[in-house]
Specification:
InterPro entries: HotDog_dom_sf (IPR029069), PAAI_dom (IPR003736), Thioestr_dom (IPR006683). It is an enzyme of class 3 (hydrolase). The chain has helices spanning 10-21, 24-29, 62-84, 90-97; strands at residues 32-36, 41-46, 52-54, 59-60, 101-109, 117-127, 131-140, 145-154. By secondary structure, the chain is of the alpha+beta class. Helix 1 (10-21) runs antiparallel to helix 3. The protein is elongated.
């Protein structure tokens, strides 16, 4: 038996956007929300001097890359978890989703993060009752695949 696809309701869009906006670290890095859908989440990051890890070559810091992939993965996990808890009242669902957290994150750095603008995307691999697994990618403005990540998230 297959489950129907996740419906990205206005309530769900507001929940994901609200969670994202309330995290000061996301704002400090300059992460911007892009696409929010049941199949994919994207986020954008304009390059800033404060995000450089290699000052000689102007390359994006590896910690920023990991953070961005974690944030986009967490948003995708939140969408999957929201669907799993759709039988709960809005208040109960939000209480559970407020406990969302990263259990494990693996990042493979493939190329230096060169560019003026970066786009991170994430897709849901599996969403269970308590855990979600997400695959994410980071591309530079010329389309170069900079890094990939796999994250496991506690979802209630």
């Amino acid at each position: 038996m297959t489950t129907p696809p996740i419906e990205l309701t206005e309530e769900l869009q507001k929940a994901v956007s609200g969670f994202f906006q309330r995290i000061p670290f996301n704002q400090m890095l300059g992460i911007q929300l892009g696409e929010l859908s049941s199949q994919r989440v994207t986020m954008h990051l304009p390059m800033q001097d404060g995000l450089i890890g290699n000052f000689v070559h102007g390359i994006l810091h590896g910690g920023v890359i990991a953070s961005l992939l974690d944030v986009v993965g967490g948003a995708m996990a939140l969408i999957g978890a929201f669907d799993k808890h759709r039988h709960l009242s809005s208040q109960e669902r939000m209480a559970r989703l407020s406990k969302l957290g990263t259990i494990d994150l693996r990042i493979d750095y493939l190329r230096p993060g060169r560019g003026q603008h970066f786009t991170a995307s994430a897709v849901l691999l599996r969403s269970g009752n308590k855990v979600a697994v997400v695959r994410s990618e980071l591309h530079s403005d010329d389309g170069t695949l900079v890094a990939v990540g796999t994250g496991t998230y506690l979802c209630g």
